[in-house]
C-alpha cells in the first residue's frame, strides 16, 4: 500500500464518518446520546480515531490484498483481534 493509497483510504473514511445522522434514530434517548457524543469528540480525538482506522485498514490490506473493509461477518472479530495483538 503506497502513500497515495493510504491518503485515499483516509479520505474514504472521512467521507463516511457522518453516514449515521442522529435524526434517523428512532429513540429520543438515542438521538440525545448521539448529539452528546458528537459534541464531546474533539477534533484531536477524531483525528486519533481516523489514524487508528487508517492503520487497521492498511494492516489488513497488507496481509490480504482482497480483504474487504466493508465486510462485517463472523470473521470480523478475528480481524479485530489480529490487528490488536
UniProtKB/TrEMBL annotation:
Determine the domain of life of the protein's source.
Eukaryota
Name of protein: Integrase
For this protein's source organism, the top of the classification is: Eukaryota, Fungi, Dikarya, Basidiomycota, Agaricomycotina
